[in-house]
Amino acid sequence: MNIILFGPPGAGKGTQAKRLVAERGWLQLSTGDMLRAARAAGTALGKRVADIMDRGDLVSDEIVIALIEECLPDAQAAGGAIFDGFPRTVAQAEALDALLEQRGAPIARVVRLVVDQDELVERMNKRAREEGRADDTVEAFKIRLKNYNDQTAALIPYYQAQGKMADVDGGGSVEIVAARIAAVLD
Ligand code: AMP
User: What's the domain count of the chain?
Assistant: First the structure.
């Protein structure tokens, strides 16, 4: 089964994706993790995206679509993918739909984690202390939230029109949110 974990930065997508991997054996496909790995490895791609990421802006659709396309055979072999932080634009969503259609394995559900903006800022500050991500600064986070509102929120009506969007309250403990997600998927 292919699902998308959707929501603003700091909503808990990565944390919940990792739980689903452990519980269901699906593959987590996080374009943010892939880009951070490219940077850590010092590849040409990593160098190209470093400043854009640190600012909190989106890298090009072309780059992230290519990263995802490469992983689809492994995801199919694992029995499903949890898309985390992808798609973030309508162009990415359309490309993903086309790629999955070719494989006969469309997106089954889009789980949208709903968290209020004050809590997002609080979580971002906590993650900055714990993980030291360069884009977890107040300035970069504001840009990431703006990009979410300007470009990514357009995916809500996109997936609602497909009848795939399920809203899940993203507030509370990791366990409580995981139970709410399981209720939507099962
Ligand atoms: P994330 O870990 O998902 O918050 O992603 C960290 C950063 O990587 C984002 O702020 C963007 O700069 C970049 N990024 C990750 N996924 C995408 C995507 N689907 N489209 C564009 N940029 C992305």
Answer: 1
Report the CATH number at residue 22. Answer: 3.40.50.300
Q: How confident is the model at residue 178 (pLDDT cuts 50, 70, 90)?
A: very high
**Ligand 1: residues whose CB is within 6 Å?**
9, 31-32, 35, 52-53, 56-59, 64, 85-88, 92, 135, 144
Residue 35 lies in domain: 2-185
d(CA 60, ligand 1 centre) in Å: 10
Measured CA to CA, the distance from residue 147 to residue 95 in angstroms comes to: 19
Whole-number pLDDT of residue 131: 83
